[in-house]
Amino acid sequence: MSDEEKEKEKKKETVKRPVVLPDGRMTNVEVSKNRVGVEQIKVHSNFKVEKFKSKEALERNEPYEVVEFEDNVMLNEGANILWTLICGGGGYAFNSGYARIGVGDSNTTEDPAQSGLLGGNQLYKGMDVGYPIYGSGRQAVFRSTFLEAEANWNWWEYTVDNGYVMQQNINRKVQDLGVKPNTEAWRMTVTLRF
After folding, report:
1. 3-state secondary structure of 22
2. pLDDT tens, 74-116?
3. pLDDT in tens, 36-66
4. What is the pTM of this model?
5. 99 CB contacts (<8 Å, ≥6 apart)?
6. Residue ranges per structural domain of the chain
7. CA separation for the pair 71, 62 (Å, rounded)
């Protein structure tokens, strides 16, 4: 084995894999030499829908189905209001009094220029008690429960918005979850993380 091959093998042995710490920070991250100090901000998302056959099943926390999916599009209006809030400009926080999860029936592909839900049927629901959860893990967790008489159509599109002001939707996601029957309660949890 040549000296060059030995050096390559030695470098392979010393490469460390990235490790995510409990607080969301990462260690052992390799940074390209031509991009030192450059970090791209990306919003990672996780959506979870728990389907309950009845209000009683919801109260017992016994879903008959749990569906999880990822990815979404951050809307321009959402990015703009987040930066406005971060920089101390006017606006209303996405807190327990204003934040909502919206569901609709449009399957139009996500686009950053959109303003929230597009479907003919849509419902925005306020936060469940204790939500949103934020301040650790580089994330915010939003959760709303849609009871039997609410949002009984084919669930296709989802967003987190600020119910106090129109056109302050952070994101939009399209995913077919089927038709919600008027006998069931569905609970949606949306986790957004930088």
Report:
1. coil
2. 999 999 999 999 999 988 999 999 999 999 999 999 999 999 9
3. 556 666 778 999 999 999 999 999 999 999 9
4. 0.79
5. 126, 127, 131, 132, 142, 160, 161, 162, 163
6. 44-193
7. 26
